[in-house]
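Take a look at this chain, tokens included, and explain the fold to me:
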Amino acid sequence: MLKINFSYFLYLIFILSFASCSNDEEEGIPEPKDTINPTITCVEPINVIVNIGTTETRITYSTPVGKDNLPGAITEQTSGLASGSLFPIGTTTNTFIVTDAAGNTVSCSFDVTVATPSEDKPFSLENGVGIPTGKKWTKVENLSDEFNNGTFDDSKWHRDPATDGFGWIGRPPGLFEADNVSVSDGNLNVTTLKYQTPKVVNGKNFTHGGAIIRSKNSGGVGNYYECRMKANKTVMSSTFWLAFKENCPRKLELDIQECVGRVHSGTDTWANNFDNIYHSNIFLHKRTCNGVTNEEKRSQKGVTLTEKNYSRYFVYGCWWKSETEILFYLDGEYSFTLTPPTNYDIEGFITMAIETYDWNPIDPNSNLFETGSFDDLSTKYDWVRTWKLEDK
């Protein structure tokens, strides 16, 4: 009996010793260290323009959330303001940091810039139009309008195509009519509509109404032209450009912004983003004069936006710097430069046309013209400003 117990005792000692050695070996093996950093991506910079006198505005953005290869990562905002907060005038830098369970960290930042348009120089942010040494920008009053008087200023603008010196009544099916132009709440409004009964003018059939507004005075090279505009929501256009009268054999056109409020299945493929775009053209139109024919040439560029053209007011600007160089700006920031296909050395007239296009035809499946509100159907111009450089 003692022999059996002694053997059993030795067996237990052996088992316990083996287990102890196994635990010691396991405890002696370090766990692998997580050296992989988490990841986080911030949104693009946000630039918002508010009315003069506004001190803050509510901004909503997609809050960044970090990711990691293992569970347990935590994302915190370390500077700036949360989405949905009231952001003050100026630039607010928002920084987010993500920390994983192993203590690895990574961060990202983005700026929210809230600005008001200046009334004594072109609207310009950090990368906006500059001021050449020894010069200053001076507003050209007869080519500028704040639209704050509640009435249309007939001393500055044409709204009847029969009297504006060009005589273009619109591209069917969109007819330009002065009755569709109004001034209210600090805006110049051009309201689109569908006629209950089509109108026939000069033998052409028109089913929808728009308008064209032209400056009574002309402006030339060296000037900076800008407007603060919110597009209508329809298939019709919202534009800001310079029109030039025939200069045999040259017919020029400088489109600062040309967009639409809506595209659909019938829109030409190349224009499928024209409801969220900043797009500019410089034309030499095809013309024959005194036996000389100019074939059409154009320079164009565009920037696809993350917002619809009707989602808010945008500031569109153009510095006609020289006869061969024209710079374009969006919301006070430089966007691109275009080289004209011919020397741009004659004066043009500011034009705002709300028209129809064959490449974005009236959509028969939409009832927006019947159900849309005044705001839905109207292109709104908060202001139009023209500046010239003068010696200090």
Notes: The CA atoms of residues 198 and 207 lie 5 Å apart. The chain has a mean pLDDT of 92.
